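Please produce the structure of this protein holding iron/sulfur cluster.
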Amino acid sequence: MSEVKEIAEIPSFTVTLSIRRFDPEKSEEASWEEFQVEMHSTDRVLDALHKIKWEQDGSLTFRRSCAHGVCGSDAVRINGRNRLACKTLIKDLDINSTITVEPIKGLPVEKDLVVDMNPFYQAYKDINPFLLANDKPEKERLQSPEDRARYDDTTKCILCAACTTSCPVFWTDGQYFGPAAIVNAHRFIFDSRDEQADLRLDILNDKEGVWRCRTTFNCTEACPRGIEVTKAIAEVKQAILRGKP
Ligand code: SF4
Ligand code: FES
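Below is the modeled complex.
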């Protein structure tokens, strides 16, 4: 009979989370509230939020769906930096100091960590995020591996808004299309099968378009998918100047 190996116990520790709370039915002002939670080294910030909601305060409000870095719904500001709560291990933060969790900036807060994403989605819709071709093909549209590689990076976007809401231009002027919309425009502008690159380049040549970008790289640092956001914006700027992708 094979020996059953004992599984080593995962170490636990207590952390303090300070969460930015806002409930429009109770107060016009947001405020910080502290919670202490017992966590394990394998736990993520999302696990801490769940634990608080399930064991301490059921009114704590936040978005999440997949819990595995795919749906993009749980972007929050953790210790002042935009991240996905489900991809941030507590042990990788300074667990001896209070961990702050607040909503992403630049979008109206609805409750606690939940923001109104509509302005963000509107900018996404405005760039026509779908293939635009002039005819109906009889067979599949072919593309060489080299052509496919031109926009590979920007196909990875999960629309989490971490980039756009880390951008100082977006904070001061919510009219700016923002990095995520430009990334998704890039995905089609550089797709050799798409025939409306001019249309998208025209849209982004607007006063609220790519020229508002100040190349601060906040967006690239914030992206949980590792997309080179600033590079994509620069490529769209060059395409506008060239008049073609
Ligand atoms: S580019 Fe990155 S940070 Fe921006 S919305 Fe897409 S996945 Fe999120
Ligand atoms: S919950 Fe889906 S990305 Fe975090």
